[in-house]
Amino acid sequence: MLKYTALLFLSIFPFVTKSKKVKSFQQKNKIENAEQRWVDSVYNTLTFEERVGQLFMVAAYSNKNEAHYSSVQKLIEDYKVGGLIFFQGGPIRQAQLTNRYQSKSKIPLFIGIDAEWGLSMRLDSTYRYPWNMTLGAIQDHNLIMQMGKQMGQQSKRLGIHFNFAPVVDINTNPKNPIIGNRSFGEDKVNVTNASIALIKGLQSEGVLATAKHFPGHGDTESDSHHTLPVVKFSKQRLDSIELYPYRELIKNGLASVMVAHLDVPSIESRKGFPTSISYNVITNILKNELKFEGLVITDALNMKGASNFKQPGDIDLEAFLAGNDILLFPEDVPVAVQRFKEAFDDKRISEERLSYSVKKILKYKFQVGLNNYKPIELKNLYEDLNKSEFNAMNYTLYENAITTLKNKDKIIPIKNIEKEKIAYVKIGDSDHEGFLAVLNKYANVQEIEVKDYKTVLVELQNFTKVIVGFHKEDGAWKNHNLNSSEISFLDKIAKQNKVIVTFFTKPYSLLRIDKFDDYEGFILAYQNNEFAHTVAAEAIFGAIDTKGKIPVSINNDFYINDGIKTNGLKRLGFESPENVGMNSKILSKIDSVVNYAIDKKMTPGAQVLVARKGKVIYQKSFGHHTYDTKQEVKNTDLYDVASLTKILSTLPNLMIQFDKEKIKLDTKLSTMLPVFKGTNKADATLVDMLTHQARFKPWLPFYKATLDKETNKPSEKYYRKSFSKEFPIQVSENLYLRKDYNDTIIKAIADSDLLPRVKYKYSDFSFILMKEYLEKASGMGLDDLANKNYYFKLGANRTTYNPLHKFDISETIPTEEDNYYRYGTVQGYVHDMGAAMQGGVGGHAGLFSNSLDVAKIMQMYLQRGNYGGHQFFSEKTFNAFNTCYYCKDENRRGIGFDKPQLGRSGPTCGCVSMTSFGHTGFTGTMAWADPENEIVYIFLSNRTYPEANTNVLSRENIRENIQEIIYESIIH
């Protein structure tokens, strides 16, 4: 196999240095000599019948019974067939059968398969790439070559030597029933360049590519599987259009050509005579005019386009006489061999003609390594055929294919989502859940279920924008046409609302739409699957640019290579780890760490998210809400993030004030809050307070002063069981604190003693006081301020104080079985007692969120205050807050941010950059961002459930161990 790879390298990459050229030439001669010796030695051992047997590639299935398997084996043993073409089945079964069949063959068999979009075209449990039509929208053909390499690796791993791909037909007829999506499009240059890329990729891995269907099946309206299609073009037209790809592919080292069953009067004068058995088409045109020296293969001889013309055996002989080397899917090998013997005896077949094809077959067998055949290794076969890097390739392909065809007033991507009310309407009869789920990761997008069109139109009047998805089953030959009622409905929506329409279908589905004038936005996603759903939603909200170009024309509305480039808004996207330089296999070790923590009862459940370079590459939920395992944690569930509130709510709002020069690092507390004038804290500066060295005490148990001294339960002096004007502050489900108690909290802080000397000592006081400042400066509650300034604009729609005001309690994670203050399950109410006494809205605690929303805020920090088209604060401000001002004094803190440890112990794994920043929280949470490595890491848990005092999660460094795995997974 290495020999073949070296030879192939020379043919594809001839431009090497002079010394290398000499060595390469010598190496090539050596390989060619070894090849010729092997071919001659094998050929000379074969009988006439065995030589004829090499011409046949018979059909094999891995999903049939032993009778079929035995019949194939009999053909191998008795008729020495040269190869097999596998059809439906599965990879393990096919590998087992391949090993069995190869062991019975005198000469190793060619194994072929139709794998135009990957092995999944024929086999279950294998990988699937986009259709050629989707790939035809991609402008960077190097991506198609890389995909071809992966396809080649998968084929080789399964013992396959021939991939009967690509289809190089130029699909100039939208009504073509059999080619369509299998074509790269209707432009001959684009089809050719994409085909060259795919072929180079396949053949660089030692797998033979096959260009099909010669001389061109792209402009037919019938299917050669069922009849003989007629192509009425002149030889000049064929020469100019259909044959163009073949000329160029032959120049680029094409290994084989498959000849179609077509009736082409301009190049075959005999009426109704298939091109697959035409001497003029195969020998005169393909071999002599186009100078093709590779293997010539018939399309399957059981297809009606051929089998209706002649009987089994006769059709095989005619195909060979016309110039074919390999006879694919013969219907009756014994009869065919007999016909060959008769023709040889009658001197219609010469020894020279037979040896020409058989030796060519043997030559290519040598080149794919069959001179040194080894059985397929079954171990890890499934894993090898479904590697994570294949997903990375697919994401990239779809990201580059998705095409924006209309973008009136730059409606795509959607900006200022805080001002929008967005609806989603599904048209079509296939899956849409994946698309809707990703849309809702960016904004609240409400699905309007289509029961009757009139009702839907009325409901849509309440929305500023409507996203319409047309979803049809993702099959290459499936009907993707809109029906008349769907067209009418779509037109009415477009007339009434501002719409972004996304078609998850083949381009030809657009043909039935009369006009697109009322469509503000139109995206063509080509296919209806997870990858297309993700990238379409990303494009709509600006997580990616769109750069695809439609590979076919649609009436007079869109022309070949139409496509509007859109620009992203720096919103988080979703990607495979390998595309951002991370190793999926290593990242998967996170699972075992979290599951270990759950098994050891360190926490009932958790959410973990990893993003890099603006892409979420790992997002999982583990375990359950509680240890009773009744309710699993979902990615959308809300955790009490505890002290992460400091950097997710209070700090970013302070940064706006700083950016506006309302405050400075040396601003004193007495200036921010005049009530502190004359106190021992009056001169505390912003920088000292937010770096935790203002000599403040760590905290005060404010709640204890409100408990009855005898019962140790909430005193009636301070609490009531129901809401009233005097007792409006809800602490838990049936507990309301009196309205003036916040003043008592602030006074207690003001009256508290200072620590004896200046040193780093973590304190909640600073952020409790910063909340007071922000609310007084803005005239708004911190919850409303955070919503207005950040969460609505970020699309952080599941980030909130007091989640029960917006969400069902089942969507919130319990934090404790409280037996000391609230006496019950703390769920949907903040765990921190001080924040609870402030109505659930604290500057130091109180926020609830999920991993994705937290990641959005951390990504905004990484992007120096920029996200989703908004500049929240300046880069200068971010840099000021992300500076360690007192590292020399062994205080690692930035302004509000925690920073990496300066010694051995601290909040991180010790493997992050010193420019990184973040915070941890009492409930078992962590948010960390690293500008140098462009990584965001979020860990949310309820380790405080059922009781908060035991913190094994921290003691066993679970959060830090996960962070270490993240950094280990970086591909250097």
Describe the structure.
- By secondary structure, this protein is of the alpha/beta class.
- It has 34 helices and 30 strands.
- The strands form seven sheets. It has an eight-stranded parallel sheet. Strands 9-14-13-12-10-11 form a six-stranded mixed sheet, sandwiched between helices. The chain has a six-stranded mixed sheet with strand order 15-17-16-30-29-28, with helices on both faces.
- Helix 13 (314-322) packs across helix 14 (333-345) and helix 23 runs antiparallel to helix 34.
- The two termini are 29 Å apart.
Q: What is the makeup of the main sheet? A: 8 strands, parallel
Q: Average pLDDT, to the nearest integer?
A: 95
Q: How much of the sequence is in beta strands?
A: 5-15%
Percent range of helical residues:
25-40%
- Main-sheet strand order equals 7-6-5-4-3-2-1-8
Given helix and strand content, the structural type is alpha/beta
The number of helices is 34
N/C terminus separation: 29 Å
Number-wise, the strands total: 30
Determine Rg (CA atoms, Å): 35 Å
Give a quick precis of the structure.
This protein has 34 helices and 30 strands. With 972 residues, the chain is an alpha/beta fold. It has an eight-stranded parallel sheet with strand order 7-6-5-4-3-2-1-8.
Properties at a glance:
972 residues; alpha/beta; six-stranded mixed sheet; 34 helices; 30 strands; disordered N terminus
